[in-house]
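Exam revision sheet. Question 4 asks you to relate a sequence to its structure. Input first:
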Amino acid sequence: MSPRPIDRRELLRRAGLSAAGLGAVAAAGCGDSGGAATTGASTAAAKTSDASARAQTAAAIRAARVRKVKRGEAPNLLLVIVDSIRADHLGSYVRRNAHTPNFDALARESLRFTHVYPEAFPTGPARATIYGGRRLFPFADWRGPPPDMPGTPGWQAIPAQNLVTTLRAAGWFTGLAVDTPWVLVPSQKPFQQALHRYVPIPGQTGTVTKPASLISDAELARHVPPKILDSSSGQKMRQYLANQVGRRSEADYLPARVFTAGMGLLEEANRQRKPFALMIDCFDPHEPWDPPDKYVKLHGGDVNRAWDPGTVLNGTTATNGLAPADVAQMKALYRAELSMSDHWFGNFMQRFHELGLERETLVLFLSDHGFLLGERGYVAKMATQCHPELIHVPLMIRSPDGRGAGRTTDYLTQTQDVATTLLRAGTVRRPDFMDGQNLLPLLEGRRGKRKLKRREYVTGSYSSIVFARDRRWSYMGDNQNADPQLFDHRRDPREVRDLAASRPAQARRMYERMVVRDNDGRALPKFT
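Answer key, structure tokens:
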């Protein structure tokens, strides 16, 4: 059924209601990711877990020895994370017909970063870095994940001492609206409880709000490639579709709910006597994809197909059974979901401007990783394919005084830089445990760039795979340097000619002088 148009007054009414109801959500929802209710022994265990989380949070806030900041002494802070955006899919990053007008409008008012690479990913590890403010690469201290997270290296909770605990200790009002499932899980309770307002929005894959049995096999088959219908991805899609039962209009889609909740946070934060730091963490355009038809048509997709590749397995087009026409439809679905997220981000920013917050708030926008859409025959998030489609992400900083607006910087930037930059913007001393760069001098142009520590290369980890990248070469391989790949991206920007066999010394140099060096010169961990 086609979604009915969104009425502007209805949208603002919802935002006002969400502002009024935030206290109830935060109080009732501490750590509740929207699953089944608990009773008896499980309730007692949950209470014990809550108490432990509160104790961790209180200790982390006490440990932050920072001065109090009063409203007006520093700009407010707004961090927007939109998952799975490839930089090359935004109009501001030179994609034609991207249909991302609101992200691009922010870029025109911002300093746009052209060389940004996550140091740890996918979604969960990336959040631990962004909010934690320190590197996880190469997961040398990893001892296994919490029971509610995937079991591959790097998956861990956001550190107990983090961006939020530091800001709260400095007197800031903090809030988060989020549908990213790996932020909603119980192991993230210390982080959730550090926030004054935590607004969880369950419904994405990885959460359960309605029984999966609501979705018939026939309905599931309309959204999944036939070859992977019985796979784990297929069953995740079944649960996701069940979560969406009852959706009546575009306002009920998850990006709309996240950014509408964000409007409520803006309203509440604007009433505070404290400076505020708000975070909006939107999971789309992460798969699975089921965007409204109008966005699919916008990107040349077919809305009359018998089935859509609304989700895929990490692997190749062949293992997913995708013909060229199916890959084209997958691209249209991804881009459609991106355009829908852009639209609701635009509504959020309109409210931001209506409140006059653009003159007193610094905005930092970024994504955590990209997505393979058939390049070199691969789809999804293959750790062995750390090419730009997967690791090159957008980042923009909008300064309330207009510095840097409309300019770009090619400074090699990574996700651990986010927390340090936001704290410095808020005049809060960076804690010793953080190790990112303060990116604010770049707002001054070349003169500011000279104030930063020079970066000749970047390194990062996805599970047991590592990558290193400088201005010419791209290296990736197992963290023991098994099966390395090497590309001269200056001459081969699409990275299709692997030179590891013909240039083994260059591959070895990058492993030893970049990967090992960034592990303090120590051997990297072996994961079984």
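Marking note for examiners. The two ends are 48 Å apart (CA to CA).
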